[in-house]
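Why do we bother with a discrete structure alphabet at all? Because it lets us treat a fold like text: something you can write down, compare, and reason about line by line. To make this less abstract, here is a complete entry for Tripartite tricarboxylate transporter substrate-binding protein. Read it the way you would read a sentence in a foreign language you are learning: slowly, and without expecting to understand everything at once.
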Amino acid sequence: MTRRKALLALGIGLGLATASPLLQAQGGDKAVIRILVGLPAGGGTDAIARYFAEQLRAELGQPVIVENKPGAGGRLAADALAKAAPDGLTYMIAPNATPTFQTLVFGHQLRWDLWRDFAPVAGLVSYPIGLAASNALKVGNAREFVAWAKAHPAQASFGTAGMGGQTHFLGVQFAKVAGIELQPTPYKGTPPMMNDLLGGHIPAGVALIESLAPQHRAGTLRLLGIFSDKRSPLLPEVPTLAEQGYDVTLGEAWTAMWAPAKTPGAELERMQQALARILARPQVGDHLRTQLAVVPRYLDAGAMAAEQRKELAAWEPIIKASGFKPE
């Protein structure tokens, strides 16, 4: 089954998953758990959240629904989580871009503080981000792309699904390390960027591996490398950019769960342990890798908070040095 088919299959249950808590609770008197998602239904984060919601229903014996609140790069769902009662019934599943880049880039616009208003629950999955080139360039690796960019400085650019996020700053950092000028070309999401990359309208693009891998395998673009410190089991034949001499290794994206601050410790522990049991199952790992193009990566709350602090510390000077200011 392809990722697209998997998303469509998950989408069939959209009506049930987003039904009212009252309807979901019929047939039982257990309270409904809500999982907030700040991105649209049918996307990658939504698919991950719905899969874990399905697993949690069975594991906890309790209704679990997904509630999409798309907009502002995940900020609307985070706003709702910050306002939610800390009763163990509301959680958020989000990619690292929501807390990390919202905090570092848009912090002055936020209604919440990552450490004051949220409690980490568990890390769930990780997935690499890659640099791809249009077939029109006829380059086979990152070194050849850098040579092309140096020879064509007026044309050298990369597509990104919007400004101020991880793919944008990875492209900026790659250009700095490679010693080239590489202007970002922002798009309203990954699909239009991919269309232009495949059509040869932009020379390169930075995106999640889930978008690049199918086209790479089909030969319609060239995946030059991933922004990770080691090769990914999702695409072991693709080298890291560090292997090729470009030490940019902050491109391992991840998805995790948060709760409102002051959620009782017993509730956090209950959810954390349920997720640990789910992620320990081989069939869950197989499904995540083959159907959702992500790698299972359980982190308990302490390890997740440490990862978050490490990521914030690593990105803050890079973002400041870029001079980027949100509009």
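What the structure line is telling us, in plain words: The CA atoms of residues 95 and 255 lie 4 Å apart. The chain is about 45% helix and 20% strand.
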